[in-house]
Design a protein that fits this description.
Elements: H1 2-8, E1 23-27, E2 37-41, H2 53-66, H3 71-84, H4 90-104, H5 111-125, H6 132-151, H7 160-167, H8 180-187, H9 198-209, H10 225-236, H11 246-250, E3 276-277, E4 280-281, H12 286-298, H13 310-315, H14 325-334, H15 337-353, H16 356-362, H17 366-377, H18 385-405
Antiparallel strand pairs: 1-2, 3-4
Helix pairs in contact: 1-2, 1-4, 3-4, 4-6, 5-6, 9-12, 10-12, 14-18, 17-18
């Protein structure tokens, strides 16, 4: 609580102490008990005093990542400070909303608090008399709440640079966590030739050029966490050169309509540097781009296949051993235009990975790819664990049908 007050300018930062260990465990579950744990590095000292306001925010995030039991308390304190600070101290209140936004990108509330917190945030989005900056932060916070509640807590404490970037995010369109239409609108000036998001083409292209077709367990084995978030930050700045060469930007790796082709020349050896080149972050390996591609799909506000089509997707595979493959493919025709383009791009990309020659190296069969991507394409809205479990196999079969049966002859090219 002292850290929150210090960041708002109400308390004294010198009176705050960050108590963390060199190696800590992250409670990855959203419940308050029986949490699984993952080790990760953190601050280099114990009981340190934050030297600036951003480090104070980092201390708050550290507490919530390490101790799941404190997450709801942090959110309740933030809500209190977002409303109890007098109007004359609007800057202090806006700073509290900055902490709220950063927190919602780091860890979720428990299920018990989720609905209450959502209603609280929504009540501030258009409240009369609210300062415009606060309403902007509240709208952004609602979007991030929906994402973090699906994705779960991050596996690491955000760096100071990441925190500064996240604080500036409300009001801007970032490739991660934004709606497809918003992403396309924001990129049309710079990439008018593309009919799918540049973030999608960049990451998919990087997977191939970095040798993803030769990597065992591609899309199953996660990329290095630190590298992922380092590259993600560059992508959110609009720096797509971090995972592609300039030839892709100018169109040599895409069709005239912005769709990837197996003959587009992107499947040759990588000409990218690994790590850092002259101070510029570069993609390190195919697993990093693969993990970021899944993250991008997962963080979309609405699934690529909108929820209203979910039941139809499952119905198409409910009869017989593999269901009706043609019916599965036909569902793509009914999707909104942009969603359809993205799905076609992804299916063609997965078909390249599923080539029998590639499977020998990656050990990723069509079934394995379907297993990985089904939860990124489709989202079951049921709260019943049994329903979710029973639907999982049908979701995977639906994606498998798309990979095996979707082609230009379907009239979807």
């Amino acid at each position: 609580f002292k850290l929150i007050l210090a960041y708002q300018g109400v308390g004294n930062i010198s009176s705050c102490t960050i108590h963390v260990n060199n190696s800590i465990s992250v409670n990855s579950s959203r419940s308050n008990t029986h949490d699984s744990q993952t080790s990760l590095p953190t601050f280099s000292s114990v009981g340190t005093t934050p030297t600036n306001l951003t480090q104070a925010v980092q201390g708050i995030l550290s507490e919530g990542i390490v101790c799941a039991e404190l997450r709801d308390e942090i959110y309740c304190q933030l809500c209190k400070q977002c409303t109890s600070v007098p109007n004359k101290e609007s800057e202090a209140r806006e700073r509290c909303w900055e902490i709220m936004v950063v927190t919602l990108i780091t860890f979720p509330p428990t299920k018990d608090l989720e609905n209450w917190l959502r209603k609280f945030l929504e009540s501030k989005c258009g409240k009369e008399g609210e300062k415009e900056g606060i309403a902007k932060h509240a709208k952004f916070a609602v979007k991030k709440l929906n994402v973090i509640c699906k994705a779960g807590p991050r596996g690491r404490i955000p760096s100071l640079t990441e925190i500064e970037k996240i604080k500036d995010a409300p009001g801007s369109v970032t490739p991660f966590g934004s709606a497809l239409a918003d992403i396309m609108e924001s990129q049309k000036g710079k990439y008018p030739h593309l009919v799918v998001p540049i973030i999608l083409t960049s990451l998919a292209d990087a997977v191939i050029r970095l040798g993803g077709c030769n990597v065992e367990g591609i899309f199953r084995v996660p990329g290095d966490t630190e590298s992922m978030y380092e590259v993600k930050m560059e992508l959110e700045r609009g720096n797509y050169e971090v995972c592609q060469n300039n030839s892709h930007i100018t169109g040599s790796s895409v069709h005239h309509n912005g769709m990837m082709s197996a003959s587009s020349g992107i499947f040759g050896p990588s000409n990218m540097n690994n790590g850092v080149n002259n101070g510029v972050v570069c993609m390190k390996d195919a697993n990093v781009s693969a993990s970021l591609l899944k993250m991008w799909l997962r963080e979309l506000p609405e699934p690529i296949i909108p929820n209203k089509y979910y039941d139809k997707c499952l119905e198409s595979v409910s009869g017989g051993e593999n269901g009706d493959a043609k019916a599965s493919v036909k569902i793509l025709e009914k999707l909104p235009k942009l969603n359809k383009r993205v799905m076609l791009y992804m299916i063609r990309f997965l078909q390249v990975l599923a080539d029998p020659e590639n499977q020998k190296k990656t050990k990723m069969t069509v079934e394995n790819l379907a297993m990985v991507f089904a939860p990124n394409f489709l989202v079951c809205e049921s709260a019943s664990p049994q329903t979710i479990f029973e639907n999982t196999k049908l979701e995977q079969l639906f994606v498998k049908n798309l990979i095996l049966s979707c082609n230009d002859s379907n009239g979807l090219g």
